[in-house]
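Throughout our pipeline, every protein is held as a single compact record rather than as scattered files. Nothing more is needed to write down the fold, since each code stands for a local backbone conformation. The record that follows is passed on verbatim for readers who wish to inspect the format.
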Amino acid sequence: MVGEPISEIEHTEVVSNNGQSEFRYMKAISAKGLCLVCHGENIAPELTTKIDQFYSQDQAANYKLGDIRGAFSIVRDVP
């Protein structure tokens, strides 16, 4: 929902998947200060070198404090 605080963005539902009921839960993850050390706009040059060396395809950069960084997702069968 537009304007909703990231900390409150979550969704639950029960769906049918191949005849089995599944419970699904998703909660948004916001970028915190510690996240920005590796994923922010001002990454230290020596860290950028290491990230490029070990994660050459990584595109998780230039986030700002509070941006949506991803989501936790859980899927469980419903008995």
Q: What stands out?
A: Residues 7-77 form one domain.
